[in-house]
Amino acid sequence: MNNKSTVIASVIIGASIVIFGILLKSGIDNFTNKDRRVTVKGLSEIEVPADRVTWSIAAYRTGNDLPTLYKEMTATVENVSAFLKDNGIQEDEISFYPPEVDDRVSNRYSADVRIPFNYKLTTRISITSHNVDLVKDIIGRQGELIARGIALGGYNSINYEYTGFQEMKPSMMEEAIANAQATAEKFAANSGSRLDKIITADQGQFSIYSNEDNPSMMKVRVVSTITYSLKN
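Above: the chain sequence. Below: its structure as tokens.
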């Protein structure tokens, strides 16, 4: 082998050693860092007033003659409807359900039990409105229905909702991700590392629930979970 061939061979061998060293270091670094990661959660929460309310009540009539009771219930429904509309509730916000008949004679446990009436007719009325404050005011004055001779009872519920959270989703997601990143950066700094790329991330889980102290105020929250890789 001449001198020129020897030099070329030496250069090739030297370059191979350098490249092998670089690859070996990269492989060691990757092996060392492949499991270095941090998973954090980012929270965004806001309290907003409910933008829809559903108020359900039940009115009933009792007696011994079903046709008479049905006429009385029809008058009751008209009376309740008039009361609601006079106070600002729109017709399409009111739902009346068919009356349910409780045949107390047939359903009693013993023939020796005396009952004051044979039948009880109950109808449920549901008001669903975006005018939350108006409905809250009427709920506070439902005693006026009793003053009109309308017997209420057996069913009374109020359910508040917030339907506009779709509009705030982007900003809340942004805040949750920013909070998650801040937490991850603090963890990385404390461990002598830096954040690298995002390995996994979810879009966040939204939840909406009423404030226990004030049910008409709704808490909207989103929690995002993000996993970052770490580097030196």
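The chain has six helices and nine strands.
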